[in-house]
Design goal:
The protein is of the alpha+beta class. The chain has a domain of 111 residues: 2-Layer Sandwich (Alpha-Beta Plaits), CATH 3.30.70.1290. Helix content is 34%, strand content 14%. The protein contains five helices and four strands, in the order βαββααβαα. A four-stranded antiparallel sheet has the order 2-3-1-4, covered by helices on one side. Strand 2 and strand 3 form a beta hairpin. The longest helix has 18 residues. It is globular, with a radius of gyration of 17 Å.
Length: 184
């Protein structure tokens, strides 16, 4: 059996990717956005963290979190978020994807993929590449032609704060422009 090792850096900044089961395109629905917002706020009240950036795609999300000094337990937060989202999603009458017999025995539902991907942000340059990757993701996936046209992204906050110009990402860009260490 694989022994999953997670990066531990108390007070660190992390890039995460979470994917729905079978890449079901549910996350940009009004219900999913509402439930995800609720459970994220509740989670942050219990276990604080700063959400630096986020993009919500139909079947996955990317985000950068900064944890409080001395705290590196992002797995507890994601476990709780995924569990609470799933409970509320299913209680609202929504469906899940089929799961294996072993997942059924472990009472795991078919809303989220089992794990998530994390990356420790090493420095400001690395952070910048990951922020660019997050914000450019809807264009990369062909959902919009311009970053500014995707509504479920922290890009709009970054524009208001003067961190990006409104037309950022509108020209010819490639993933090479976003750095070689960023991916799904």
């Amino acid at each position: 059996m694989t022994n999953w090792r997670r990066a531990e850096l108390p007070g660190g900044t992390f890039f995460f990717t979470l994917v729905t089961e079978d890449r079901a395109p549910i996350l940009t629905t009004p219900l999913a956005r509402s439930v995800l917002r609720e459970v994220t706020l509740e989670c942050r009240r219990q276990w604080p963290f700063h959400m630096e950036a986020v993009v919500l795609m139909p079947d996955h999300l990317h985000t950068v979190w900064r944890l409080p000094e001395g705290d590196s337990d992002y797995s507890k937060r994601w476990g709780w978020l995924k569990k609470e989202f799933t409970k509320r999603w299913l209680a609202s009458g929504e469906t899940e994807r089929p799961v294996s017999a072993s997942r059924r025995r472990n009472r795991t539902h078919g809303v989220w993929q089992r794990r998530f991907w994390e990356h420790v942000i090493r420095d400001e340059r690395d952070l910048g590449r990951h922020l660019d990757y997050i914000h450019y993701n809807p264009v990369k996936h062909g959902l919009v032609d311009r970053v500014v046209d995707w509504p479920w992204s922290s890009f709009h906050r970054f524009v208001r704060e003067g961190r990006y110009p409104p037309d950022w990402g509108c020209g010819a860009m490639s993933l090479d422009d976003l750095g070689d260490s960023v991916g799904e």
